[in-house]
Design a protein that fits this description.
- The protein is an alpha/beta fold.
- Helices cover 38% and strands 20% of the residues.
- The chain has a single domain, classed as Rossmann fold, CATH 3.40.50.
- It is built from nine helices and ten strands.
- Strand 3 and strand 4 form a beta hairpin.
- The longest helix has 21 residues.
- The two termini are 20 Å apart.
- The mean pLDDT is 86.
Amino acid sequence: MSLGDALGLLVSSGKGGVGKSLVSIGLADELAQRGPTAMLDLDTRSPNLPYLLGMSRDVRIDAAGNPFPKVHDFRGHAVPVYSNGFLAEDGVPVTMPGEEVRSAIAGAVVAVRWPDGIRWAVLDVDPAPGDSIAASVQWFRRLAAFVVTASDVSSVQDCDRMISALREAGVSVLGVVGNMIRGTCPQCGAAIAYGEEGPASDLARRRGVRYVGSLPWHPDFRNRPLWAVENLGGAVFRDMADLVEEAERRWNRSGGA
């Protein structure tokens, strides 16, 4: 079984800086409690998963030159992770044309020595609705997506375009997730004014998809990302994982998510 046989779950945004990598980590953490899960960083030009997960860059290679994923422990469950960031040097830009992006993604799906039996593959997608989606459609037999947005107008507009791009590619959008909406005081835990729920939930309603909920702004998402996704976003990630399992059941019944 290759990684492409797993249900691929694109975590997309259409706009950089809205927290899709953190949402990817939170979804992978919750899914790992339910079944064999992998993570693949498809943001080949700006890979952030190694930093957020605190993973070193040493990559083990087999005799044929194929890399092994690195393993991260999510609350006692091992999740294989692969990112172009394992090979990138600090301060050195990752520049590659679209054909090379698609080739790199194909190599990560096919050549990386993924373990057998992966049920779900969480795919952290680059902000542009282009190469990573096209490559995912080519290499994964089953795909679904979540769209992550902040509450500002430019983010909502870009995510609106991303929903259209996903649908044009034949990818089912399972839900919209709002990020950095509301806030939590790091000293007392009280709610503070930050962002708005309405624009994100209105986007979901207007496009006919589920509004999963929102994650608050809190400095621990920057300072302690793994702690924050477990302790500040648990309900959202549980709901996302429920939607994944529902989509998988539909797929098994009818052949499409």
